[in-house]
Design a protein that fits this description.
The chain is α+β, with helices and mostly antiparallel strands. The chain has helices at 27-46, 55-65, 126-142, 163-169, 172-175, 230-240, 242-248, 288-308, 328-340, 360-363, 393-407, and strands at residues 12-17, 21-26, 71-76, 80-86, 89-99, 147-155, 179-188, 195-197, 201-204, 206-215, 219-220, 255-264, 272-273, 276-285, 312-319, 324-326, 345-347, 368-374. The chain folds into 2 domains: 12-204 and 323-407, Aminopeptidase (3-Layer(aba) Sandwich); 206-319, Alpha-Beta Plaits, CATH 3.30.70.360. Bound molecules: zinc ion (2 copies).
Length: 409
Amino acid sequence: MAPPNPAGAFFIKITVFHGFQIMIINRDIIADISRDMTEIRHTIHRNPETGFKEESTSALVIRILEKYDINITTGLGKTGVVATITGTQPGREILLRCDMDALNVIEDTNLPYASENCGVMHACGHDGHTAIMLGVATYLAQHRDFSGKVHLIFQPAEERFAGALAVINDGLFTRFPEIDAVYGVHNWPGIPAGTIASRPGPLMACGGSWRMVIKGTGGHGAMPHQTTDPTVALGAIITNIQSIVSRNVSPVDAAVLSIAHIHAGDPDVRNVIPSEVIMSGTCRAYDNNVHSMVFERLKEVAEKTAAVYNCAAEVEVQYGYPAVVNDSEKMKVAEAAAMNTVGAQWDGDIKPVTPSEDFSYYQQKVPGVFAFIGNGESAALHTPKYDFNDNIIPLGIEYFLNIVKLELN
Ligand SMILES: [Zn+2]
Ligand SMILES: [Zn+2]
């Protein structure tokens, strides 16, 4: 795999937009900053912290930002930090996002900077995302030849705890109401290092879980005519809900409705019809409306089918993160930013992936683009041998700087 940034190249790119503002991106400076950020990445990797507990990571971020004249806002989503960098000219405001949290995974990498917090590991590369964003802050703080403001959010708790929602609920968009676009990246094993990849529209799925309890009278197994039998109702419900994806979801959309667990009766008791059976499962889709529709139909089909058997179904649903849906206009900015990033290849037509990401909560407020930066042939995300690829740090920094150049000139 060729490194994304050939060593030794001195490169200055100058672009003039609208005839009045010039922003220069100097790759020698990016290379210098990236060396420092690689060290910082290793420090963060050595000290991983899980969602909403990123206190030392947050303190490290603040220490680095405090070296410069950067407006720092803390306390969003407990440990979240916003760095606001103001350009030399007035103008629009955009948001760049990274995440800081680690996972409950036992690291097995033998790296010199392996986790010293036993049972916790940066197995999703958020250490690398934080290092990239600190590199962007370091560069922009010293090169403010842009119009408007860049807000960089160092977000807590992406894994499981919806840190993005916590940050928003703590007033991100009321404190900074002028933000009108958002961009973020995630490293992606299996995509070549040096490739930046995304797609307009849905990129990552929304997911949710469901649980239903079907109730009847139950009774003596030898006298079923004197009972209402929830097990028979359950069998019909299992069959009937198969029609939701096949008959209610449009053929051009995608959804999954799976059963994961069923419980009925006692395995050692063979002459009792149970009075209650329980079933639970998961749902995935790439469109939040499709997801809601599947859950609505699940309730309706279960309740009406149970009624046919003189039973009752109670259905609980739980929504996870919404789908990551990229704005097609902002995708043109992301594409141009990637194309202008020296050493990067752009793939703007990848297939959507099934994991979820809480970046979607920002996209519900302002249009934006989430993109993957290839991590090369590394171990998979969330596995004990995974490690973030340090070679993509300069590429990530330059991609974000190109976004600033395109958006705020
Ligand atoms: Zn993850
Ligand atoms: Zn992640």
